[in-house]
Amino acid sequence: MFRRVAIIGGGAAGATLLSELLERPVAQPLHLDWYTGGGTPGRGIAYGTRSERHLLNVRAASMGMFASRPGGFLEYMQKRNPDISGTDFLPRCWYGDYLEVETASALARAKSQGHDVRVVPYEVDAMVPENDGVTIFRGETTTRVEAAVLALGTLPPRPLPQVDDAALASGRYATQPWSLLADVKPDPQAHHVAIIGLGLTAVDIIVELAALWPNARFTALSRHGLLPEVHPDNASLPYEDSDELVESMRDAPDIRTWTHLLREAIATTDDWRRVIDSLRPHTQGLWGQLPRAERARFLRHVRWAWERSRHRLPPQVAQAIAKLEEEGRLQRLSGRLDRVTLAERGLQLAFVPRSRQQASMLDADLVIQSVGLDNDVRRTQHPLLQQLVTNGHIRPDPFGLGMEATPDGRLLHNGSAWPRLFAIGSMLRGTLWESTAMPEIRQQARQLADHLLERE
């Protein structure tokens, strides 16, 4: 049993692991250091929004914080409003409230049970893992712990290389949309906003700014110009032939075969979403079977289609976007970004449309970058990860999907796994692929808590 554990990261993953550790009866008190990095512990970036226009893209019944109580969020919300249904897509800020309540409850329980839990509202500067423990450096303070867990969530996005320095310095190019939305105020001016990307975050940006800036118009540019797919109004029945499909995929771990099998399965059902959803419990295992060359093929050719099918819009958000398009306030473009430069009255984007070879120009008052997760620790500006990579303490995923690790979260270095340095959440995407949503994070937290306390 590891009695002194450090958790680095103040978002949902860190809060869930902390709460899991404090849920278990132990013979001796635990000493937990939770480095939250500032902000409200538990909410992180994902649930830090205060706008009720930003909705979860998972139904309420599946969003419980604990693997042992997957319906916990729904129970919490029905105490506030009995009319809420398990099939509802609820505001993310409500889920942030739930995380805060559960985290506060865990901390209060820890105090009553004699555990020593320190919530440290700062970042960790550096770490040195060894086989018998981990040394943590913060400012002039050095702390030795028996085990440490990186629960860092998503990394700060880097500006795209096509953006020139003058455009970045102008303040009109935003790389962190959630920071922008936290400070934005209502404005009646007729702004033209360009969005680079068309995933779930891009949709949230458009919906929020369209409400706050009623005269603004939006142009969204992405490789294919397609929005995420949409959830059905009601939960679908399970796909009846999922076991056979998964077995066929396991027997032939290559992307071409998998694509063929999925197309065949979709052709035999009334709703393709049933087929995609049936793979979710098996995705991590299937990804683990793929050879490196097949993973590369997936990322090059299939990733965009998988992600827009897998990570879908709530119906009411899709309706809001459709209305903006009908009103002429939103235009979607497909193409490749060539450059972003400073212009006389704003920024200018040069892009090459999919159907042409010659670049087109687009002027905008504000450009917001929203191109998905950037978990490439080889190029990140995150100080702790830079230190760990530079010193050879961790091994970056070769495809820029986070850190190389064993399936149970032990981080790799020089071909072996650290016995006392772990990760949880999005940094394990290269190992597990499906590793960013709460149903996966809570299962990781449960298994890791079991491992950390197993000697008890």
Distinctive features:
alpha/beta; globular; 16 strands; seven-stranded mixed β-sheet; 456 residues; 15 helices; single chain; six-stranded mixed β-sheet
What does this structure look like?
The protein is α/β, with parallel strands linked by helices and 456 residues long. The chain has helices spanning 12-23, 72-80, 92-112, 165-169, 177-183, 200-212, 242-251, 255-267, 272-278, 283-289, 292-310, 315-326, 383-390, 429-432, 438-452; strands at 4-8, 31-35, 116-120, 126-130, 133-138, 141-145, 147-150, 173-174, 192-196, 217-222, 330-343, 346-353, 360-364, 366-369, 410-413, 416-423. The strands form three sheets. It has a seven-stranded mixed β-sheet with strand order 8-14-9-10-11-12-13. A hairpin with a 6-residue loop joins strand 12 (346-353) and strand 13. The longest helix is centred in the N-terminal third of the chain and has 21 residues, at 92-112. The chain is globular, with a radius of gyration of 23 Å. It starts with a strand and ends with a helix.
